[in-house]
Write a structure and sequence with these properties.
Belongs to the PHP family. The structure is a single chain. The chain has 248 residues and is α/β, with parallel strands linked by helices. It has one domain: TIM Barrel, CATH 3.20.20. It contains 7 helices and 8 strands, in the order βαβαβββαβαβαβαα. Strand 7, helix 5 and strand 8 form a beta-alpha-beta unit. Helix 3 packs parallel to helix 4. The protein is globular. The mean pLDDT is 97.
């Protein structure tokens, strides 16, 4: 199956990434990707863009040459309370909100603290997708997190980059997460976590995990633009009308 949606990509606004918005549109078009999200790191990361970067995303076009781009963020989970580094009415201006653990903001702690932080973040209602929850540096109670995510209509990510260039040792955790989400009736999404445009839509290793647990494709948000947009609408996003042209 061809997956034409990618929810996780970084631009040169996060200075450890290497591509521009223009680069991503070009690569998306060449690969047949219909919808992707720009999700630069939240402002508490050392080399992240300023808070105003996300406030000003309204200047970006949502559709270019038939390809859709969601205005988003990969926020940082800051503490055990599940707080993130983007807040208030500004969250409502974004099309998609991702959040995850990053060592410079939330140093690894205990399984219980990681688990409680994720649960609180999910229950806050501010975050649509939890990024790379299989990171072995942040052990969690996978079953508890999967159940709470399913109850609150929050998707957990299978992060392709975790198997290639970062977060070594993620495969067993990600397989367990995929299986737990399947059993809990929840949602998964595959994210390339691209830090250069060439890897946009790269899901090869994530697909292996999905297939290994026989995860139902109807609960995989990458299956179509319509699937992701319906999910975001169900999460309360009211910024999505321009993307209707992508729905077959």
């Amino acid at each position: 199956m061809k997956f034409s949606v990618d929810t996780h990509a970084h631009t040169i606004a996060s200075t450890h990434a290497y591509s521009t918005v223009h680069d991503y549109f070009s690569v998306a078009k060449s690969k047949g990707i219909k919808l992707f999200a720009i999700t630069d790191h939240g402002p508490d990361m050392a080399d992240a863009p300023h808070f105003w970067h996300f406030v000003n995303m309204c200047v970006l076009p949502r559709i270019v040459d038939g390809v859709g781009m969601l205005r988003g963020i990969e926020a940082n989970i800051k503490n055990e309370l599940g707080e993130i580094d983007f807040y208030g009415n500004y969250l409502q201006q974004l099309d998609i909100v991702l959040a995850g653990f990053h060592e410079p903001v939330f140093p690894p702690s205990t399984q219980e603290i990681h688990t409680q932080a994720l649960i609180n973040c999910i229950e806050s209602g501010h975050v649509d997708i939890i990024t790379h929850p299989g990171n072995p540096k942040y052990p969690i109670d996978i079953m508890r997190v999967a159940k709470v995510a399913a109850q609150h209509n929050v998707a957990l990510e299978i992060n392709n980059s975790s198997f290639l260039t970062s977060r070594n040792g993620s495969l067993p955790n990600c397989t367990a997460i995929a299986n737990a989400v399947k059993n809990a009736g929840g949602l998964l999404v595959m994210g390339s976590d691209s830090h250069v445009a060439f890897s946009l839509g790269g899901f090869d290793k994530s697909i292996e995990v999905i297939e290994a647990v026989d995860f139902p494709v109807e609960r995989l948000l990458n299956r179509s633009p319509e699937a992701l947009l319906c999910f975001l609408a169900s999460r309360g996003h009211t910024t999505l009308d321009e993307y209707n042209v992508l729905i077959d």
